Amino acid sequence: MQTTSERFAQLKDKNDVVILGIESSCDETAAAVVKNGRQVLSSVISTQIAIHRLYGGVVPEVASRNHTLAAIPVVDEALTKAGMTLADVDAIAVTYGAGLIGALLVGVSTAKALSYAANKPLIMVNHIEGHVCANFVEFPALEPPFISLVASGGHTNVVDVKDYNSYSLLGSTTDDAIGEAFDKVARLLGLPYPGGPEIDRLAAQGEPNITFFRKKGVNSDLSVSYSGLKTAVVNYLHTMEQRGEKINVPDVCASMRKAAVDSLVDTVITAAKRTAYDKIVMAGGVACNSYLRQKMQLEGKKNGYAVYYPSPVLCTDNAVMIASRAYFAARAGKDLAPLSLNGNGSLRVGER
Ligand code: KG4
Ligand code: ZN
């Protein structure tokens, strides 16, 4: 019988490569079967949002327990929907970082067990790079190089994607991720978790007429920061309360959204100008944000960049993007994982 290393080596020039992806880094348990990195044969996402909403945010241990319940059923459903069994896939890909460590370990352990039982190569996937690859699925003709913005609940990264397997971090947040800022401000306003979509929805009914921040220029190290914005909203809400004035929630949402997005868009455009690229590619849950999409399109057009972002279901956590990232690694003979693979909660883009 062939070893998994031998099987992995054959993927470099096999005609069609079918990969089962597994994702469990936060509060979505997901599995997907993807052909040649861009063609979705099935995608199943079991979300825990309703469970964590009771606590106003993700409770790590509760997330781990629910991944354990969902992991195998979700994989089974993904294979069934693709009309396949484990024997039909060429490799198994799993998110091993970044994310909540207990949550990651459930996906990693599940993938290792399946890899061992079926004698299939195991491919280790960096979640942040996975988010970027959602765009390869959405846009079949999209190719690197480009600048990518990964904006989610855990990350705010400006990334230089030189090639399918070359990711380097150009800038990131010095404190909270942008999605975290949306979620925290929503909580202050008494809105349910996750707060990003709520703020986006209410912002459409308001005006960005509150100045939380005096806008500075772009930082030369391309860093951004969100803790100050959250504090500014806290202070504003306190002051209004002390004065006995009514808070216009839609206006707060529109103003916060604008403050969070405008500086980030400027930072991404500045990053792109430092390269010779002509494309900007967005990814991650916050890439669902209607104002971010609109603003990036506008500024991209003004500055000569084509702007891409996936449909919402491919922006938030899913396993399609994980299988896609693994395909490009496999084609280059990279990221084959040992059965001793561990999770890494703080894995950064470009790292292994
Ligand atoms: O990528 P994702 O599913 O998980 C992480 O890897 O973190 O992103 C979830 C984040 C949450 O913070 C959520 O509030 C935010 O994405 N989000 C949004 C929107 N939709 C989701 N933030 C702003 N506007 C939205 N429309
Ligand atoms: Zn994510």
Notes on the protein architecture:
With 352 residues, the protein is α/β, with parallel strands linked by helices. 44% of the residues lie in helices and 18% in strands. The strands form 2 sheets. It has a 5-stranded mixed beta sheet, with helices on both faces. β7 (156-163) and β8 (166-172) form a beta hairpin. α9 (249-273) packs parallel to α10. The longest helix is centred in the last third of the chain and has 25 residues, at 249-273. Bound molecules: 5'-O-[(R)-(carboxyoxy)(hydroxy)phosphoryl]adenosine and zinc ion (ZN). The site of zinc ion (ZN) has 5 residues, from α5.
Keywords:
single chain, 352 residues, alpha/beta, Nucleotidyltransferase, domain 5, 2 domains, five-stranded mixed β-sheet, 10 strands, 44% helix, 18% strand, binds 5'-O-[(R)-(carboxyoxy)(hydroxy)phosphoryl]adenosine, binds zinc ion
Brief overview:
With 352 residues, this protein is of the alpha/beta class.
The number of distinct helices, counting runs of at least 4 residues, comes to: 12
SS class: alpha/beta
Q: Using the 3D structure, state the CATH architecture of the largest domain.
A: 2-Layer Sandwich
Number of strands: 10
Residue fraction in strands? 15-25%
What's the helical proportion of residues? 40-55%
Ligand list? 5'-O-[(R)-(carboxyoxy)(hydroxy)phosphoryl]adenosine, zinc ion
Low-confidence stretches: none
In CATH, the topology of the largest domain is named Nucleotidyltransferase, domain 5
Outline the fold blueprint.
Blueprint: H1 4-10, E1 18-23, E2 28-35, E3 39-47, H2 49-53, H3 60-81, E4 91-97, H4 101-118, E5 122-126, H5 127-138, E6 146-151, E7 156-163, E8 166-172, H6 178-188, H7 195-203, H8 227-242, H9 249-273, E9 279-283, H10 290-303, E10 306-308, H11 312-315, H12 320-331
Parallel strand pairs: 1-4, 4-5, 6-9, 9-10
Antiparallel strand pairs: 1-2, 2-3, 6-7, 7-8
Helix pairs in contact: 3-4, 5-12, 6-7, 6-8, 6-9, 7-9, 9-10
The structure holds 5'-O-[(R)-(carboxyoxy)(hydroxy)phosphoryl]adenosine (KG4) and zinc ion (ZN).
